[in-house]
Write a sequence for this structure.
């Protein structure tokens, strides 16, 4: 299965921009699981990045 253009673009972003995008998705109401599915990152990684964004 190939990744979508949006996912490919997301993965090329610098870490700080990925964290900001994940933070915005979470603030818009997406669950950790939905964000993990969309970004193909683990739920644990999403939670870690969200914790880093609020630190």
């Amino acid at each position: 299965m190939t990744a979508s253009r949006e996912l490919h673009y997301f993965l090329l972003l610098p870490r700080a921009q990925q964290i900001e995008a994940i933070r915005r998705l979470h603030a818009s109401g997406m669950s950790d699981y939905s964000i993990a599915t969309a970004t193909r990152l683990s739920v644990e990684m999403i939670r870690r990045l969200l914790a880093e964004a609020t630190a």
